[in-house]
TrEMBL record:
Protein name: Formate dehydrogenase subunit alpha
Domain 4Fe-4S Mo/W bis-MGD-type span(s) in chain numbering: 5-62
Stored InterPro entries: Asp_de-COase-like_dom_sf (IPR009010), Formate_Dh-H_N (IPR041924), Formate_DH_asu (IPR006478), MoPterin_dinucl-bd_dom (IPR006657), Mopterin_OxRdtase (IPR006656), Mopterin_OxRdtase_4Fe-4S_dom (IPR006963), Mopterin_OxRdtase_prok_CS (IPR006655), MopterinOxRdtase_cofactor_BS (IPR027467)
Source taxon at top rank: Archaea
GO cellular component: membrane
Keyword Repressor among record annotations: no
Parts forming coiled coils: none
NCBIfam families the record matches: Fdh-alpha
Secretion signal, residue range per the UniProt entry: none
PROSITE patterns: 4FE4S_MOW_BIS_MGD, MOLYBDOPTERIN_PROK_1, MOLYBDOPTERIN_PROK_2, MOLYBDOPTERIN_PROK_3
Length: 709
């Protein structure tokens, strides 16, 4: 590698917006610099703090550079790749022989490219289990479930570009694009608002999204600061307000009767659900004035094109599927689907979480969301793969973790960190310690890798090529500058080697394009894509045949449900599993920061990002601070029924009285030591967004340099 090498065009490794960036190799391996990509299709050269700092981790001193095996004393020692592969294959074969294939779990990764996730889920199925999942379980499993069953596809119905151009009203609920999807927010949504669109934000926390839309003195920004876990009653107020107005003023068109009649089913169920619904009592429960919610309902119903944006504030609840279903109800009764500038749009977190689901790294679906228990679909994939696929859905990743040491004896983890990312993290760590065998392939030592028997050093995002799929279904190519550390391997190299050693066939791919060529054979919505056709612009799925341009918005003519109709279904309020009581009188809710990312594996090692926020903190409302005697900046102990963390209190009106707000990014004081593992019963997503908590003050002084826990 030398400095006269051309920069390569690739995609930012952090969030799902899919910004294009360039990586300029330097004189030495690892000497890589960020460069803007001026005409990148999504971001047109703009970049947020994370994208600009992304190259900082490529040659970080903490990189894993050689395979590690745990020795008889429980310590890690360096090993050869040959030793590591032999050990892995022996253990995989032993576990299958002793306990059957469902005793293994496989964790795919949304940080990893489509080709690699495709290989991992194929490996799991060839091994004989559907126990394969990815971190969408923790972020948008409920959204995917609701969108797939009620509309057809578990993805954004529209694209950022058509929303910027055509959307008149942005309804942003439980999402914080100002911080989590900064370029989507600044370049698309805020731009539309500057040009006249309205924004309704529904969120318990006042955040950068709130501030980004406080423009001039217009009344085109409304923030409904509801109590955590009251999204269903709030949306039911909106729905009932629209129904009531339509009953009195049918000519105002708040409801789209023609759309409901021709393109939906279930409207009567919604009306029956809301018949006795008490708006005043519900507003009280939400902690938002009824008139404010009614005003927001009027704005949504009277906009020409209204689009809903939904985030983890909606999905990460035990009623996550119902939360998103109620957003779908709102869009369907007002006819805000199937055209530009409308829709129900989940803003996906990690840069390839959409693609990881698309390629079948989930326990109930094969590539292209074909159900594993649909005989015809399964057989069509079997025809290409040449082996039988188990026909029962497998365990989700949270279920796998909870079965660790019981029915699950072994775990294959690619680029995930469940000890940090799953709720009730202390008990996850305990159970992973009970496994008979765990392999982790990653770029850094993680809290999860500490429990592994073998650790495989992988390459970073900047070193290899492949494809990723962004939040609006755009499949884009990533290109690499080559390996920084000689003895590391690309994830796909590891998986092809393990696959060939186990099965002798089906995994002998030389490069990512060969893998993509097989993927497109079994994934109908990617069938029309090739590396050449993806080019630099990428393509939105569905793209069924070569030459298809891909759809910027879905469902123009019909929904992709069995009946072809959009499914309306009234939902009733389910309070969070834990509500405040005498012992734990506060509601704890969690969210991410702009300058950090998920479990912090990369972002806390990035000097630029870590300088902004080097440790965790908790937002406490001034009234609560006064009641507890907390000074701004003081360290407090925050605890729930599952654990405790020590962190700095920020006294601020950003949070509501009675609600404490913190983040999951920092290992020493991760919110996930406190969060509740109760699951949505259909989507199996945990309820990260609401738990009962208590604060202790007057604790031991904290040594900042030594960490806080
Ligand atoms: Fe990367 Fe997302 Fe920032 Fe774009 S908005 S630069 S994809 S983190």
């Amino acid at each position: 590698m030398s400095s006269d090498q051309e920069p390569v065009k690739t995609i930012c490794p952090y969030c799902g917006v899919g910004c294009g960036i360039q990586v300029q190799p330097g004189d030495e391996p690892g000497d890589v610099q960020f460069m803007p990509w001026g005409d990148a299709p999504v971001n047109e050269g703009r970049i947020c703090i994370k994208g600009g700092a992304a190259t900082e981790v490529v040659d970080h001193e903490d990189r894993l550079t050689d395979p590690l095996l745990r020795d008889d004393n429980g310590e890690f020692r360096e090993a050869t790749w040959e030793e590591a592969y032999e050990y892995i294959v022996d253990e995989l074969e032993r576990i299958r022989e002793d306990y059957g294939p469902d005793a293994m779990g496989f964790f795919a990764s949304s940080k990893v490219m489509n080709e690699e996730n495709y290989l991992l889920q194929k490996l799991a199925r060839r091994y004989g289990t559907n126990n394969v999942d990815n971190c969408t379980r923790m972020c948008h499993a409920s959204t995917v479930w609701a969108l797939r069953t009620s509309l057809g596809a578990g993805a954004m119905t529209n694209s950022m570009r058509d929303l910027r151009e055509e959307c008149d009203l942005f309804w942003i609920q439980g999402a914080n694009p100002g911080e989590q999807h900064p370029i989507a927010n600044s370049q698309y949504f805020r731009q539309a608002v500057l040009e006249g669109a309205t924004v309704i934000q529904v969120d318990p926390h006042a955040n950068k999204t709130t501030r980004s839309f406080q423009i001039d003195d217009t009344d085109r920004h409304q923030h409904l600061q509801l109590n955590p876990g009251t999204d269903i009653p709030l949306l039911n107020i909106v729905l009932k307000t629209i129904l009531e107005h339509h009953a009195d003023h049918p000519d105002d068109g708040w409801i789209d009767e023609e759309f409901i009649a021709e393109r939906t089913e279930g409207f009567d169920h919604l009306k029956a659900t809301l018949a006795d619904f008490d708006k005043e009592a519900a507003a009280e429960e939400c902690g938002v004035p009824l008139e404010a919610i009614e005003l927001a309902a009027e704005k949504y119903a009277t906009a020409d094109n209204a689009a809903i944006f939904t985030g983890m504030g909606m999905s990460q609840h035990a009623c996550g599927v119902d939360n998103v279903q109620n957003e779908i109800n709102l869009a369907l009764i007002t006819g805000n689907l199937g055209r530009a500038g409308t829709g129900v749009n989940p803003l996906r977190g990690q840069n390839n979480v959409q693609g990881t689901c698309d390629v079948g790294a989930m326990p109930n679906v094969l590539p292209g969301y074909q159900l594993v228990d649909d005989d015809e679909a399964r057989e069509s994939v079997e025809d290409v793969w040449g082996f039988e696929i188990p026909d029962e859905p497998g365990l989700t990743n949270v279920e796998i973790s909870y079965e660790a040491g019981d029915s699950v004896k072994g775990l294959y983890v690619m680029g995930e960190n469940p000890v940090m990312s799953e709720p009730d993290a202390n008990s996850v760590a305990d159970r992973l310690g009970d496994l008979e065998f765990m392999v982790v392939q990653d770029i850094f030592m993680t809290e999860t890798a500490e429990f592994a028997d073998v650790i495989l050093p992988a390459t970073t995002w900047a070193e290899r090529g492949g494809t990723v799929t962004n939040t609006d279904r755009r499949v884009q190519r990533m290109r690499g500058v080559g390996k920084v550390h000689e003895n590391t391997k690309h994830d796909r190299e590891i998986l092809t080697e393990v696959g060939m050693r186990l099965f002798d066939e089906g995994f002998d791919f030389d490069d990512p394009e060969e893998i993509f060529e097989e993927l497109r054979q079994v994934c109908p919505s990617y069938h029309g894509m090739t590396y050449d056709l993806l080019g630099e612009e990428g393509l939105h799925w569905p793209c069924y045949e070569p030459g298809d341009e891909g759809d910027p918005f879905l469902y123009e003519d019909e929904f992709e449900t069995e009946s072809g109709l959009g499914h309306i279904e009234g939902v009733e309020h389910t309070p969070p599993a834990e509500t405040p009581d005498d012992e734990y009188p506060l509601i704890l809710t969690t969210a991410r920061l702009e300058e950090h990312y998920n479990t912090g594996t990369m972002s806390t090692r990035s000097p630029t990002l870590n300088r902004q926020t080097p440790e965790n903190f908790v937002d406490v409302h001034p009234e609560d601070a006064e009641r507890y005697g907390i000074e701004d900046g003081e360290y407090v102990r925050l605890r729930s029924r599952r654990g405790e963390i020590t962190l700095e209190a920020h006294v601020t009106e950003a949070t509501k009285e009675g609600v404490v707000w913190t983040t999951p990014h920092f290992a020493a004081a991760s919110a996930n030591k406190l969060t509740n593992h109760v699951l949505d019963e259909r989507a199996k997503i945990p309820e990260y967004k609401a738990a009962a908590a208590e604060i202790d003050v007057d604790i031991e002084p904290v040594d900042r340099a030594a960490g806080d826990d």
